[in-house]
Amino acid sequence: MLPEKTSITNIVLMGMGEPLANYRNTMKATALMAHPDAFRFSSRRITLSTVGLLPELEEMLKEKTPFRLAISLNASDEETRTHLMPVNRRYPLRKVLALCREFPLQRRIRITFEYVMVEGINDSSLDAKRLLRILRGIPSKVNLIPLNEAPEIPFKKPSEERIKRFQEILMEGGLTAIVRNSKGREISAACGQLQAKRLE
């Protein structure tokens, strides 16, 4: 529950499944959020996060939807992204980014790229430099999300030093890069950790 007198300032459709897999209902819901006779949220404060479902992204482009867009990127090359996100086999990184370049963004609006950092997988200086290269020309910002570890997950988060160096490379290259701190790690309720556990 929110504390009393706390106002909701932004809405992000993320983490409850792929929003664009339920495209029509997602569009209806976001339109209702922004409607002046309903919740009256500015479209600039509503973000749709997607792994990059190309047919639905193309539909968004055709319909000129005004909401902000966030792409779950998590890698800077096809092989690594496929390893982390099998959906990349069907909707390759290069095609997702090509479509992102076509979006007619409003002034001062950028596409957000979500990048979960995994030790030894996508956290090297080479990964950072490659990320700079593939995002060149796209008005963008990058959210760096250190992996939220859990006993059932075989991956680890990088060291603080490695995360900081990755961020520095992006920022030195002209990208806005923000390290996101997660809440709920101690009870396995942070981003990427929600799951059913068997009670002994």
What order do the helices and strands come in, and which of them pair?
Blueprint: E1 11-13, H1 23-34, E2 46-50, H2 54-63, E3 68-72, H3 78-84, H4 93-100, E4 111-117, H5 125-135, E5 140-146, H6 160-172, E6 176-179
Parallel strand pairs: 1-2, 2-3, 3-4, 4-5, 5-6
- How large a portion of the residues is in β-strands, by DSSP E? 15-25%
Instruction: Evaluate the radius of gyration.
Output: 17 Å
Number of helix segments?
6
The number of distinct β-strands equals: 6
Morphology call: globular
Helix content: 25-40%
- Class computed from helices, strands and strand pairing: alpha/beta
Specify the CATH class of the domain at 73-187. Alpha Beta
SSE order, one letter for each helix or strand: EHEHEHHEHEHE
Summarize model confidence as the mean pLDDT: 88
Note the gap between the termini: 29 Å
Architecture (CATH level 2) name of the domain at 73-187: Alpha-Beta Barrel
Q: In words, what does this structure look like?
A:
- This protein is of the alpha/beta class.
- The chain has a domain at 73-187: Aldolase class I (TIM Barrel), CATH 3.20.20.70.
- Helices cover 30% and strands 16% of the residues.
- It contains six helices and six strands.
- The chain has a six-stranded parallel β-sheet, with helices on one face.
- The radius of gyration is 17 Å and the shape is globular.
- The relative contact order is 0.11.
- The model has no long low-confidence stretch (mean pLDDT 88).
